[in-house]
Specification:
about 1100 residues; Beta-Lactamase; 8 domains; six-stranded antiparallel sheet; five-stranded antiparallel sheet; flat
Length: about 1100
């Protein structure tokens, strides 16, 4: 027991999160945990000590769990079986904070056997190190470098490559077939004809200049790829230039898009002037009759200047014969479009440019009466074609110099049509073997890779997507080597036509990767105790192993200190031990030791002193080997500096943000992209976007990346910077996924503002020439009223089941589909609308036949376009299927009708049943000779008739929830007069406003009035031949007021209505409470006045809300 307590005390002092576990497999009961272990696992000691490890950390706690608990148990068992230390290099431990937010952590988990004094295995000692930050940093760096669009490279002053990302390596291999390696001069990878140019560029960059160039690179097939290359000085934190940073960004798509946009813009602009870039109408002599205004931007001439020029004045003498020949052919064939090969024409500034022209003789057309010459500038195209011809020989030389196999094959059969000579060097096969055997490539792929590789290539090819993949390929010697195949899909008429690719030998790279994956490190920890009373030092077996001493080595304090490296480390440990003994101070230091074998190691030494009677009697603690961590931290610092150089010198802006969208890292380029310094820009990224609709798509794409953990395609955003400037960016980003869960997003922004300006300009041009459809949703149509033809949108087919072949362009086909009972009404309504020039909208509901023969109820809405005379020339509209709406209305109407009938019947039956009851009570009253009983029975009859009256009025009315209360009062007086037959003639005056009351107020109010009138009839006019009763009912501001006044004898002297115990007065009090009413009696010499007031309510349902 003493030994156990001693062990517990030792490990509790350890700064490293540590748990002492019993060896009772499978429970593995927790004996004790130190404060550090409680903190890192977010658990209290009382919740876990004495419990099995699974109950403490898995079964009973939903908010704190290991990602794979079986790995932990397996580690326990391995330590038991082998009696050796076992380590889990990385395991995820999920925590939910007090605020309910999930917190992701990673542990390095070590399980070590712990022996008692008899050298028997007693416990398992489990330590945990938090490595969350290192894991996430490494993953983020990998994503920052290798999941962005740009290519980067960093060189020193000697032009030797220090660092480059995967994209740069991939681009260079794809173009030249050469793998870029660190430590090699950048000049070795440059094109020979550009080396001197690059050397000059580097002279300027190393002196502090930034240089940007556009680099065209020829590729197989005679095309070019274009790159934007930015050279910037790479500076240390003190501003010293130590090398150059080069970013390589492909702009081929932008260049092609720009060229395409410019061509489209030119064509659309020329539509205004008969469809050409410059349209000239010539007479028979070749003199201009008319020239479009575009002549000024194209040739530099103002239209009035160009009117004085002849075709011969502007056409190059060497090319005029082509124009002359075309003119002659066009004049011989009126209306024929005669193409003229590119010719040179002179600008106003006397320079010559290449133009393509098209000549059509339209002199026979009165509206033209001339020869139309459509002129288009093709200067760049002609120069490019000539440049391509000159580059062809250089390209073929380049192909031969690439360290890889360039090939071309048919997209549908994978038959090779070309293979570069490097194939024989790399694989040992001749070009003839590849080309003459249609299955050669597939048959030589390793059997284990063949199916997946071929299927992947086929799938990507069908989609028209460029792709790359890796597989093993058999050489002529029978040996298999790893290759990476980078494939470009060439399309023709929108379909894949050819495949062009580059096979690269990556065998050595694969070997290094496999070797790296097998390498791992194991962290270790040991315990020690210094007994100052007995002057003895205890080391655990691991600490002895750490110091390279034999197991039987017996250390003391002096020899232990001597292991620490002379200088700082030894002085620091001596000071720490001295302060622990003299001042009772704990210590936690990271120092270096020199082992018995002369090895230098980094260790973490932790000690806690224990005092008795004010004197230190012992120090106990732990020593951990942190050599690997220290080495890794040093490497990490160096790597961070390299990555920082890459990020800070890029033209893109890099960022990371959490799943909540808040930016937690922004590169220095934020000043340009966002208008803020990096620290100021750490906000929710959506705060920088405008209200442009395209931004919502971007928000959705990022959210999808977070939810799926998959990289999404690039998308575009419109941003408003802190300088109130609008810019367009392209977003490339990837989710950082840890154990299947997205923890953050890493991405980059590329400025595409200029490209968007071209697109916006084109869009504005298109909007000037396209009619904006005013059609509604569903089956959209466009009816040409002049030609009497109709064009249907796809909605007609999806909505009503027709195929395009079922519906022709005739309006009669639409009329045939209308229900026979509706067709004439539709015809007349449409005819009336079209005839009225003031109407430009048509709407009608009818039945339309579906493909399966059923009829659908539809609602049609159309917009009518009229000419200057008011005649309808066109109608654009939509047909909406409202069948379900119509059927729902019919079902609701039928249901309401049934319920109204049922409710009316219920009120009628209730009234009849009450009539039977009142009749039976009335018969009983006539049959009894007891006057008091007879009076009470007649009172009950009156009350029952009152309720019956209400139900009678309900079933006779159109409403089952409200009553006209003035009618109710009239009925009540009649019922009471008939029931309580009196010898006195009573004249009744009723002054009532028409007021409808909710049934929940009408019934109680009626019963109150019944009691008052009954009392008047029975007592007010005793001994008199005649009496008068006046009723008044009115409403002011939703307050109902009822007054009943008689000229009878009044109440007896001393009569108090509030204490009267008769049933009538009791009912008045109870029913008044039920409807929140107030009432009062005024007893005078000329009779009695009763007044009842309550606020009108519209409570739904039938019931008494005051019943308890």
């Amino acid at each position: 027991m003493i030994e156990k307590e001693k062990n517990v005390e030792i490990f509790r002092a350890l700064p490293v999160p540590t748990a002492l576990i019993n060896i009772d497999d499978p429970a593995f009961t927790i004996v004790a945990v130190n404060d550090a272990f409680k903190k890192v696992s977010s658990r209290q000691g009382k919740d876990i000590v004495g419990k099995s490890f699974s109950d403490a950390y898995q079964n009973s706690c939903e908010n704190h769990k290991f990602s794979d608990f079986q790995v932990v148990l397996s580690s326990f068992r391995k330590a038991l079986e082998t009696e050796q230390i076992h380590k889990i290099p990385k395991i995820r431990y999920d925590i939910t904070t007090d605020k309910g937010k999930p917190q992701l952590t990673y542990w390095e988990f070590t399980v070590a056997p712990y022996y008692n004094n008899e050298d028997c295995l007693a416990y398992l000692l489990c330590t945990a190190s938090d490595i969350t930050e290192n894991v996430l940093i490494e993953e983020q760096k990998d994503i920052i470098l290798n999941h962005t669009e740009g290519s980067f490279i960093l060189t020193n002053e000697n032009l030797e490559i220090l660092l480059c990302n995967d994209q740069f390596v991939q681009n260079y291999k794809e173009i030249f077939g050469i793998e870029v390696q660190k430590g090699i001069s950048i000049l070795e990878y440059a094109l020979p004809e550009r080396r001197k140019e690059i050397e000059k560029i580097y002279e300027h960059v190393l002196s502090g200049e930034t240089i940007e160039i556009e680099l065209p690179v020829p590729i197989p097939g005679g095309d070019y790829r274009y790159f934007n290359v930015l050279y910037k000085p790479a500076k240390r934190s003190n501003g010293d230039i130590f090398g150059a940073f080069i970013s390589l960004r492909e702009i081929t798509s932008e260049k092609e898009a720009k060229q395409s946009l410019e061509e489209k813009e030119a064509r659309f602009r020329s539509l205004v002037e008969q469809g050409g870039d410059v349209v000239v109408i010539l007479d028979s002599k070749g003199d201009p009759k008319y020239i479009t205004p575009s002549v000024e931007p194209v040739f530099g001439y103002k239209p009035e200047e160009a009117q004085n020029l002849n075709v011969t004045d502007v056409t190059h003498p060497e090319d005029f014969h082509l124009v002359e020949k075309a003119l002659r052919e066009a004049m011989e064939n009126p209306g024929k479009d005669v193409k003229v090969p590119p010719v040179r024409m002179q600008q106003r500034d006397r320079t010559w440019r290449w133009y393509e022209t098209s000549i059509t003789d339209l002199r026979h057309e009165p509206s033209v009466a001339g020869i139309v010459d459509n002129i288009r500038d093709v200067h760049e195209q002609v120069l490019t074609e000539k440049l391509l011809e000159r580059s062809k020989e250089k390209y073929e030389s380049l192909v031969r110099s690439v360290e890889g196999v360039i090939w071309e094959a048919k997209a549908d059969t994978y038959e090779f049509t070309y293979i570069s000579p490097q194939s024989e060097y790399l694989f040992g096969y001749s070009a003839e073997e590849w080309i003459n055997n249609s299955d050669f490539w597939e048959n030589n792929i390793h059997p284990e890779d063949r199916q997946e590789s071929v299927a992947y290539c086929q799938n990507q090819t069908k989609k028209g997507l460029n792709h790359d993949f890796e597989y093993r390929f058999k050489k002529a010697s029978g040996e298999y080597i790893w290759v990476r195949d980078v494939v470009t899909v060439i399309t023709k008429n929108g379909k894949p036509d050819l495949l062009r690719g580059l096979m690269i030998d990556i065998n050595e790279q694969k070997r290094l990767i496999n070797l790296m994956e097998e390498t791992y490190q194991i962290a270790k920890i040991g315990n020690w105790e210094l007994d100052l009373k007995q002057e003895k030092l205890f080391w655990s077996p691991f600490i002895k192993e750490l110091h390279d001493v034999p197991p039987d080595y017996e250390p003391d304090l002096n020899t232990a200190i001597e292991f620490y490296e002379k200088g700082k480390s030894r002085k620091e440990i001596e000071k720490a031990v001295e302060n622990a003994i003299e001042h009772n101070e704990s210590f936690d230091v990271e120092l270096t030791i020199i082992t018995a074998k002369g090895n230098k190691k980094w260790i973490r030494a932790v000690g806690t002193p224990e005092q008795a009677n004010g004197e230190c009697i012992r120090i106990f603690g732990s020593t951990q080997d942190i050599t690997d961590r220290k080495i890794a931290e040093e490497k990490l610092k160096k790597a961070e500096q390299k990555y920082r150089n890459v990020v800070e010198h890029s033209t893109n802006m890099f960022y990371t943000h959490g799943v909540d969208g808040v930016l937690n890292y922004v590169s220095p380029q934020s000043n340009y992209f966002l208008g803020y310094e990096p620290e100021e820009a750490k906000k929710r990224w959506t705060e920088f976007i405008t209200d442009h609709p395209i931004n919502q798509k971007g928000v959705a794409i990022t959210q999808k990346a977070i939810e799926t953990g998959e990289t999404q395609p690039p998308y575009e955003l419109q941003l408003r910077t802190g300088k109130d400037e609008i810019i367009w960016v392209e977003v490339n980003e990837a989710p950082l996924v840890v154990n299947g869960e997205t923890v953050s997003i890493v991405g980059s922004l590329t400025d595409i503002t200029e490209r968007k300006k071209y697109e916006e300009k084109l869009q504005n041009s298109l909007e000037r020439y396209h009619y904006v459809s005013k059609a509604t949703r569903d089956a959209i149509y466009d009816w040409d009223a002049e030609k009497n033809t109709i064009h249907w949108g796809d909605g007609l087919y999806s909505l009503f089941g027709y195929k395009p072949s079922d519906i022709d362009a005739s309006v009669n086909r639409w009329i045939d589909l209308i229900h026979p009972d509706d067709v004439e009404e539709v015809r007349e309504a449409l005819k009336f609308t079209l005839k009225d020039a003031s109407m430009n909208h048509w709407a009608y509901e009818y039945r339309l036949k579906k493909a399966n023969g059923d009829y659908a109820h539809v609602r049609e809405n159309g917009y009518i376009k009229r000419n200057e005379d008011g005649w309808a020339t066109r109608m654009i509209g939509a047909i909406q299927d409202i069948t379900e709406e119509v059927f729902s209305k019919q079902e609701i109407q039928a249901s309401l009708s049934e319920k109204e009938t049922l409710l009316s019947e219920i009120h009628h039956r209730v009234k009849n049943n009450l009539a039977v009851v009142s009749g039976m009570i009335q018969l009983q009253a006539y049959d009894t000779e007891n006057a008091d009983l007879q009076a009470k029975l007649f009172d009950s009859v009156v009350r029952i008739k009152t309720m019956a009256t209400v139900h009678e009025l309900l079933y006779q009315s159109q409403s089952f929830s409200k009553l006209e209360f003035s009618d109710t009062l009239q009925k009540l007086v009649e019922n009471i007069s008939d029931t309580l037959r009196s010898n006195t003639y009573i004249d009744t005056t009723i002054d009532c406003e028409p007021i409808k009351l909710n049934i929940n107020q009408a019934i109680p109010a009626s019963l109150i009035v019944n009691e008052v009138i009954t009392n008047i009839y029975k007592h007010a006019f005793k001994g008199r031949e005649k009496g008068n009763v006046a009723f008044k009912l009115d409403k002011k501001n939703e307050l109902i007021n009822i007054q009943i006044k008689d000229d009878g004898v009044g109440f007896p002297e001393g009569f108090d209505v509030d204490v009267n115990t008769s049933l009538g007065f009791h009912l008045i009090r109870v029913l008044s409470d039920q409807i929140d009413a107030t009432y009062k009696y005024e007893n005078g010499t000329s009779g009695t006045l009763f007044e009842l007031s309550f606020r009108k309510h519209n409570n739904k349902g039938i019931g008494n809300r005051h019943l308890k």
